[in-house]
Amino acid sequence: MRKENSSNAINERQLRGDCGTAYTLSLIGGRWKPSILWRLLDGKMRYSELKKSISGISERVLVLQLRELENDHLVKRIVYPEVPPRVEYELTPLGWSMESMLQHISDWGTLHREDAMAHKSVKKTAAVAMADKG
Asked: Residues of the chain whose pLDDT is less than 50?
């Protein structure tokens, strides 16, 4: 856990307060949060459905990311008093307000992913060729 009064923590709070982009990325940044939010755009999902829909995410990380999204008021956790207990997650109105932004980010990624992958492939091929010569 980082100290609240460390220069790093102070700088982060300052940046989040001064820059809308930094604030937004602090809410949705990371490997899994965009995927969670994207899945919930389809509506309420049970924890197990969410877990199955995101390949590669561990239970621990999913729980942590859902808690963070809940603390940031982007996701709502609904517990049904049943046996066995049933839990569903859904976007809050604040979470829904991110829909068009998430769509634009997805569109941009789809548009530029192939170019970036092709560029990486060319660089890797060139590096292998240089290693073979050397």
From this structure: none
